[in-house]
Amino acid sequence: MNLHEYQGKEILSSFGVRIQRGIVADNHKKAVDAAKQLTTETGTSWYVVKAQIHAGGRGKGGGVKLAKSLQEVEKISNDIIGMMLKTPQTSAEGKKVNQVLIAEDVYYPGDSEPEEYYMSVLLNRSTGRNMIMYSTEGGMDIETVAEETPHLIFHEEIDPALGLLPFQARKIAFNLGLSGGALKEMVKFVTALYTAYVKSDSSLFEINPVLKTSDSKILAVDAKVTLDDSALYRHKDYMELRDLREENAIEVEANAAGLNYVDLDGNVGCMVNGAGLAMSTMDLIKQSGGEPANFLDVGGTADAERVEKGFRIILRDPAVKAILVNIFGGIVRCDRVAQGIVDAYKNMGDDIKVPIIVRLQGTNAIEAKKLIEDSGLPVHSVVEFQEAADKVQEVLA
């Protein structure tokens, strides 16, 4: 589950990570009130207005701007809230901005120039260990840094039995070129950051930039936090942070119906039971000249109600030109699935305007095929994988 910047910072702060303080607002009047409150609490007189969407690169799209007065806070907030913000990580349409974060100015003058670093905490899947990835090149596209100057990217792997050790935190600070008070501050920052990552059951922390201020404080200026969905049962309060407006509407609907669904850019809808069979079915569609429009796993039950929900969700995508149902009847009998398909088709009537190809294999597969053929419905029943591939190719031609 992805979080907004302000939500991620709240989690970091709760574990002792120093952050750039800010207040979220959903209209320009509240934005001005937030700026006034920040001035009272922090003494800041300049403010950073940040669009809150689930995408990076907001500054490049005009979603992050500096305001040097309350009047500018009001104008900039009014301009950003409601806009369709386009970044390298959004669709061509962009994402609607529903709220902004009014943050304190942390690039104030002092004894030294502020410096920006990059830092993330994530799982290294090749080793099965958590890893801290960091660089002196903060505030930039880390992908570009990794491609053009890989020697500036450092990694520190954490032994799961020991956790982050003090020497590792010091090593990170040394590699970032820090010394004196800034080094001590970075050691505290890294230690608190890793503790927050583990205890919040997150799958990704990305802080870009981590800032060394002109008076050697270390803080998170931005925060991209992704929580592990499988661990949310341990953090019921985090569930309240979910912003459905930022998620794919079809995926939200499918999740509410208890279906495992992922929206894709294709023209053939898939309805399958089991993730492995779903992946094979998607390969089959591509080999047939089509492109999978979705990943949809109906699970161990495929009655009429569940199949109908699946059909309706798939057909919400106007790009779908055909639907391939590929079910293996192990736990569930194929004839029951077939009856579910027939009943769902009859219930939906004229709502189904694309060809449906059905492949049922396993328990009572012969009875299932006969049931579909005897229904008189325009459903193509096949037995073999190759038959399914040929039929997909045929209906797309």
UniProtKB/TrEMBL annotation:
ATP-citrate synthase/succinyl-CoA ligase C-terminal domain residues are: 271-391
Q: Enumerate the cofactors the protein uses.
A: Mg(2+)
Where is Mg(2+) annotated to bind? Answer: 208, 222
Where ATP binds, per the record, is at 50, 57-59, 106, 116
Biological pathway: Carbohydrate metabolism; tricarboxylic acid cycle; succinate from succinyl-CoA (ligase route): step 1/1
Highest taxon listed in the record's lineage? Bacteria
Q: Tell me one GO molecular function of this protein.
A: magnesium ion binding
Kindly state what the record says about how the cofactor is bound: Binds 1 Mg(2+) ion per subunit.
- Residues annotated as binding substrate: 273, 330-332
Chain segments annotated as coiled-coil in the UniProt record: none
Domain ATP-grasp fold succinyl-CoA synthetase-type, residue spans: 2-210
Show the SUPFAM superfamilies listed in the entry.
Answer: Glutathione synthetase ATP-binding domain-like, Succinyl-CoA synthetase domains
| Keywords per UniProt | ATP-binding, Ligase, Magnesium, Metal-binding, Nucleotide-binding, Tricarboxylic acid cycle
Provide the E.C. number(s) assigned to this enzyme: 6.2.1.5
Catalysed reaction per UniProt? GTP + succinate + CoA = succinyl-CoA + GDP + phosphate; succinate + ATP + CoA = succinyl-CoA + ADP + phosphate
Q: Name one Pfam family in it.
A: Ligase_CoA
Which biological process annotations from GO are given for this protein? succinyl-CoA metabolic process; tricarboxylic acid cycle
Task: Supply one GO CC term from the record.
Answer: succinate-CoA ligase complex
| Annotated family | Belongs to the succinate/malate CoA ligase beta subunit family.
Physiological role: Succinyl-CoA synthetase functions in the citric acid cycle (TCA), coupling the hydrolysis of succinyl-CoA to the synthesis of either ATP or GTP and thus represents the only step of substrate-level phosphorylation in the TCA. The beta subunit provides nucleotide specificity of the enzyme and binds the substrate succinate, while the binding sites for coenzyme A and phosphate are found in the alpha subunit.
Query: Subunit info?
Result: Heterotetramer of two alpha and two beta subunits.
Task: Supply the name of the protein.
Answer: Succinate--CoA ligase [ADP-forming] subunit beta
